[in-house]
Specification:
With 214 residues, this protein is of the alpha/beta class. It has two domains: 124 residues, Rossmann fold; 78 residues, Arc Repressor Mutant, subunit A (Orthogonal Bundle), CATH 1.10.10. The chain is built from eleven helices and six strands.
Length: 214
């Protein structure tokens, strides 16, 4: 596998130079271009739409929703990771609704950033530790509010698997943690999708965060 190409949009010099240093020191990624605005990012992404985009939530010229709409004109599911200071659930929800693939706080370790880039480049989602804790907390609150009908609908094993999916684990990793086969995990995942009438994992994560499972 070759190096993953990365585009960066960050308006603050200190963070921008920090990202450059981290990415240039990795032998797994190639820093394609660094810019200061969303419009610049869009321009370069159109030239190389397979690049993973690292986008600061503080870029001055557009919000993440508008940025994603523009990037989606080049490719259906642009591989975007939001970098932010925010640990607010509302901001995380807005980013997920916009369609981002990853969400990390700016105090995340450099290893976590590189791992997230590699995950997103493979079409998977990646969440930093802070984001995962937010999602786990939201899911736990929703689970406590489940009506008895909902508890019967979603089995104990399925709730365990949802919790791990929300944390960002892959099916293979979930299988190892629960001592079951990957095929069994995929079966549970498919059953959950059918029961909740959801189309993909991203929708399942958003559903677990935003609503009571019923």
């Amino acid at each position: 596998m070759g190096k993953v190409h990365v585009l960066v949009a960050e308006s603050f010099d200190i963070y921008r130079h920090g990202l450059e240093s981290i990415l240039n020191s990795s032998n797994k990624v190639h820093l394609e271009y660094v810019c200061k605005s969303g419009n610049e990012l869009i321009k370069y992404f159109r030239r190389k739409p397979t690049s993973v985009c690292l986008v600061s939530s503080g870029i001055p010229d557009m919000n993440i929703h508008d940025l994603m709409m523009e990037l989606e004109k080049a490719i259906e599911e642009p591989p975007v990771i939001v970098l932010t200071h925010s640990t607010e659930l509302t901001h995380l929800n807005q980013s997920l609704k916009a369609g981002v693939k990853g969400y990390l706080t700016k105090n995340s370790p450099s290893e976590e950033l590189i791992d997230a880039i590699l995950e997103v480049s493979q079409g998977r989602q990646a969440f930093g530790k802070s984001a995962s804790q937010l999602m786990i907390g939201k899911y736990a609150d929703s689970a406590k509010k489940l009506p008895s009908k909902g508890k019967k609908l979603i089995t104990k094993r399925e709730r365990e698997i949802v919790k791990l999916i929300v944390q960002g684990y892959t099916s293979a990793e979930i299988a190892n943690l629960l001592y079951i086969s990957t095929r069994t995990v995929e079966t549970h995942r498919a059953n959950l999708m059918n029961k909740l009438e959801l189309k993909n994992t991203a929708a399942l994560v958003r559903y677990a965060m935003e609503q009571d499972l019923s």
